[in-house]
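Translate sequence into structure tokens.
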Amino acid sequence: MLRIPLLYAIVDAVFFPATPELVAFSLELAAGGCTLLQYRNKSGNARGMLEQARELKQQVGDSIRLIMNDRADMCLAADFAGVHVGQQDLSPESVRGIIGPDRWLGL
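Result follows.
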């Protein structure tokens, strides 16, 4: 049975000047009961985004289910639990083909 998260937060990298601040805020969210966290980075380059996402994953471990915003490829590369895509992104069917049947897909 699917359990609805108590708190689904979105952490946008634009508000954090460096990865340590983003990770610290994410850990505070976890301590406050957040169980699902969407990592959003619309302005970063792919390398920086992946490095930040991997550090986030390493630091929060399994305490929070991590969702990547928009990028199915980054979801896989950072070993996130799922991806959220908007209406202007890849189709849900295409994303499902990339991330497979076991990861979450939000629309």
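Note: The radius of gyration is 13 Å.
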